[in-house]
Write the structure tokens for this entry.
Amino acid sequence: MKRIFKTIGITAAILFAIYLFSFTLSFGNGHPATGLSFSELYAKEDLGLDWKTAYQSIVDDLNPQNLLLMAYWQYLEPQRGVYNFSDLDWELNLAQQKGASVILAVGQRVPRWPECHIPGWAAKLSQGNYNQALLSYLTQVINHYKSYSAIKAWQVENEPYLGMFGDCPPFDQNLFNEELALVKKLDPTRPVMTTDSGELGLWFTPASQVNIFGTTLYRVVSAPTIGVFHYFFIPPAFYALKAALVKEFTGVSKVFISELQAEPWSINGAPLAYESMNAQTSDFSTTTLRDNFQFAERTGLSPIYFWGSEWWYWRKVHGDSSFWNVGKQLLSR
């Protein structure tokens, strides 16, 4: 019996040593491509910014080479069958003028809280009519934007399998399959992608359905029930290993970081603009931003899209340019 316990102890010690050693590993060459996301909705409705001025400043001054932009259903089809593409046209035209590569996120669930962005009229439809309305909307969006050379990929839904997060209808696998098939049919020349949570998702199911795959990467989160929570126990190897396995067993051509935490997670669930300047940075400093990027570099995944440039701009216009300056430096590396 003593020998058995000794063997178990030695095995556990070896496994723990391997786990600790994994924190020292780096899988990248230190020069990943970079980019950032921009959300008209977040800039305007949560941060109270002049969103066009914010976007113009981000594109001109930060000069991202890669952009993740969002097609919000409630903005583009405010009434059934009545479309307004003017604002998103303006975003894409500016990106195209600057020579940036764009991923356009489409569907009912695209980035930023409450995750699903459904027009009021659509929310009142029966399930069958709702599904048809969503597919009709996707058809209009893809056909309208597939002539834009700046668009390099379509993101269909955002973290669709993360049902525990967001104010969304129950996940419908058949509907998601129809969305993917429709986008691939409407534009067979561009890759189709989707995303999953880096810390909570297994990746295999969503990655198996697309050409390229994006993961989130968060280090510090918070929630009313748990408070501030640090993912201190996850090494860069965790993401590198999952990416290698997903590429091997699903055939997806690329795995990258579509959402790197570059802003704090709101403590009370309210928009950051409702918190004091000091409270915003109590658990997220410019050092945290640098550390997050260095951590992401060590995963070997590329490109890396920063999540939070709108907040950097908000801080800047409220007297603190430190995050803006650090972000600009990291984007230019």
Summary: The chain has one domain: 2-331. The domain at 2-331 is CATH 3.20.20.80 (TIM Barrel). The first strand starts at residue 34 and ends at 38. The chain has 14 helices and ten strands.
